[in-house]
Write a structure and sequence with these properties.
Structural class of chain A: alpha/beta
Helix content of chain A: 25-40%
Oligomer: heterodimer
CATH class of the largest domain in chain A: Alpha Beta
Radius of gyration of chain B: 14 Å
Helix content of chain B: 55-70%
CATH superfamily of the largest domain in chain A: FAD/NAD(P)-binding domain
Shape of chain A: globular
Number of strands of chain A: 25
Largest sheet of chain B: none
Distance between the termini of chain B: 24 Å
Shape of chain B: globular
Number of helices of chain B: 3
Number of strands of chain B: 0
CATH topology of the largest domain in chain A: FAD/NAD(P)-binding domain
Radius of gyration of chain A: 24 Å
Number of domains of chain A: 3
Largest interface: A-B, 30 and 25 residues
CATH architecture of the largest domain in chain A: 3-Layer(bba) Sandwich
Strand content of chain A: 25-35%
Distance between the termini of chain A: 27 Å
Largest sheet of chain A: 8 strands, mixed
Chain lengths: 521, 74
């Protein structure tokens, strides 16, 4: 039991199929009610697809685990109806400090982009995110969530998947047209289907401690390279909600996880770090290792893999849960089109292609961070220390210091779904780019561009004046087999704009986007 | 030519979507060049690299400035 959080225990119900002996037939089963499985269910629900969601447990994530939710994840969560709850409960922070040995070498201030609704990231313990997603799922009649339902066998044919489900009261069988495996890094579905995941384990261990600070402590991110209180290793301090701070101590491969987890060993480490008598209480402690690996492809016939089941990265950069949510975001609409017969199953190849590309980018960035933080050779350590010593006085030195590159969505510029780009277009919004937010006015009320988009195909057209734009051809677009909703955007307010959604940019349209000059977790 | 102390790395023909990418690209190349070398070999590689880059820069005033900045932090 945590001091600041009571784990909910969700109701297990006896599956009616156990008594009836009937095979349960459903269009889609999602395995695993972690953040990604819950998101996947909500995405399909928005598409009008009924979902059976199975989880072998009956509560949320134990321990804080995923902490940083980046802007794109928050925008996706907005679509699922939980963005406000996450942002209200989460901690926004802007100041990060980087220390080398006993000195601060530099600090940064991640000022939120004023033209975007959501900040660069919020910190929130994973159990809160899961709780909000579960609450949202419970309000959706199209999703049936069954707790303490564990998959014990899975087989697939050309047209569907057969599952055996084990519960405390017995077993039952499910036949589904599609199976989505969101069952985590050790994915039982992946194992039962005999599918490989390739990559490497990093030979390092990290101690993570959630600590309730009694005294005021700034809402900042502090990262130490080789500090006096923990020589030759790194330490990260992150603020979470409810005055809970997350501290990660790099331990090295030879550390004994069971010994390191003992409070009598953890508490002195934290005291040495704080360097004074500020009071704190231990909330949760764990020792972890991590792997960098992914499956060769994420779609296998009627089985689709999302989140950690498909790909795992080091924690530096917060690229785990953030990328899993983007998997759900990428897959939902594609599966719907295939299920409706409006696209062939080849469309699902593009899910794999695009998310494999993103996974490789995440693997590359998190591996680079890991290599900077934990140098593997003397030469590598010398370069790292040189970069850190240059960072204090020189901007180029700061740009080389890599203590984590925060999850940002991939630019899918080579996706097979992209069509030829013809005209040059200022800024970064080229085909395959993740769409940027912008403040807009719609029907005279202020809002955000991303709130008017999503869940359907839309054609956004920038016009000088909606009133003088001939829209007769556009209005035919939403009557086709796959409807497309035209969206007119202009600098001047629309007075008459029949049958079309019209918006006005509240500021100049985004042109040359400001780039993240500093991105960290 | 004054010594440039701002981020200045890029590769022709490549479009970057994050400001940190070109620096990280180079850093990975640099560390990769040292893979599987002994400490002594790494030192030799670094020395050769400095001589190559110094010749490429050419301007001795710039090199003098770089040497002073490098020396100051040691």
């Amino acid at each position: 039991m945590l001091k600041t959080y009571a784990y909910p225990k969700y109701d297990y119900r006896v599956a009616p199929e156990i008594a009836s002996g009937r095979v349960l037939k459903v269009p889609v089963v999602v395995i695993g009610a972690g953040p990604v499985g819950l998101a996947m269910a909500l995405d399909l629900d928005l598409q009008g697809v009924p979902v059976l969601l199975l989880d072998e447990d009956d509560t949320v994530s134990i321990g804080s685990r995923g902490v940083c939710y980046a802007k794109r994840a928050l925008e996706i969560l907005d679509r699922y109806g939980v963005g406000d709850a996450v942002c209200a409960k989460g901690v926004s922070w802007n100041v990060g400090r980087t220390f080398f040995r006993d000195k601060e070498v530099y600090n940064f201030n991640l000022v939120p982009e004023p033209d975007h609704h959501r900040p660069g990231m919020v910190n929130l313990q994973q159990y809160y995110l899961e709780e909000y997603l579960v609450n949202r799922v419970a309000s959706r009649p199209g999703i049936e969530l069954r707790w303490k339902n564990k998959i014990v066998s899975v087989a697939q044919s050309a047209t569907g998947v057969t599952l055996t489900v084990e519960t405390p009261d017995g077993m039952y069988a499910v036949e589904a047209d599609w199976l989505i495996a969101a069952d985590g890094a050790r994915s039982p579905v992946r194992r039962m289907l005999g599918l490989e995941v390739e990559g490497k384990i990093f030979m390092d261990r990290f101690l993570i401690a959630d600590v309730v600070m009694k005294a005021d402590f700034p809402a900042e991110r502090w990262f130490w390279f080789d500090p006096p209180f923990h020589p030759n290793q790194s330490v990260l301090l992150h603020k979470q909600t409810d005055s809970v701070f997350r501290i990660d101590f790099q331990l090295g491969w030879d550390a004994d996880p069971d010994e390191e987890k003992k409070p009598e060993n953890v508490i002195p480490r934290i005291k040495a770090m704080l360097g004074d008598e500020r009071e704190f209480e231990l909330e949760w402690v764990s020792v972890y290792t991590f792997q960098c690996r992914r499956m060769g492809r994420f779609n296998h016939g009627r089985v689709l893999f999302v989140g950690d089941a498909a790909h795992q990265v080091s924690p530096f950069g917060a690229r785990g849960a953030n990328s899993g949510l983007q998997d759900a975001d990428n897959l939902g609409w594609k599966l719907k089109l295939v299920m409706d017969g409006k696209a062939t199953e080849r469309l699902l190849d593009s899910y794999s292609e695009e998310r494999v590309y993103a996974a490789d980018e995440n693997l590359m960035n998190s591996t680079r961070s890991t290599d900077f933080i934990t140098p593997k050779s003397r030469a590598s350590r010398t370069f790292r220390n040189a970069a850190l010593s240059l960072a204090k006085d020189h901007a180029f030195g700061r740009s080389l210091v890599n203590s984590g590159r925060l999850s940002v969505p991939s630019f899918l510029v080579d996706s097979s779904l992209n069509t030829q780009d013809e005209d040059a277009f200022a800024g970064r919004m080229l085909p395959g780019a993740p769409m940027d937010d912008a403040p807009v006015e719609k029907d005279g009320a202020p809002g955000w561009l991303l709130q008017s988009t999503g869940n359907r195909f839309q054609l956004m057209i920038f016009v000088d004046d909606p009133a003088t734009t001939d829209t007769s051809a556009l209005s035919q677009l939403d009557t086709g087999d796959i409807p497309v909703e035209p969206l007119l955007v202009s600098r001047v307010a629309a007075t008459a704009c029949p049958c079309l959604v019209c918006m006005t940019f509240a500021v100049s349209p985004p042109s040359a986007m400001t780039q993240n000059t500093a991105a960290f977790t | 030519m004054a010594l440039n102390l701002n981020p200045n790395l890029s590769e022709a023909g490549k479009r970057y979507f994050s400001a940190y990418s070109p620096g990280d690209d180079f850093y990975e190349l640099l560390i990769g060049a040292h893979r599987d070398l002994s400490d002594e070999q790494s030192e030799l590689l670094n020395a050769r690299l400095i001589l190559l880059l110094a010749n490429h820069i050419g301007d001795i005033a710039t090199l003098r400035e770089a040497l002073a900045v490098a020396r100051k932090g040691v």
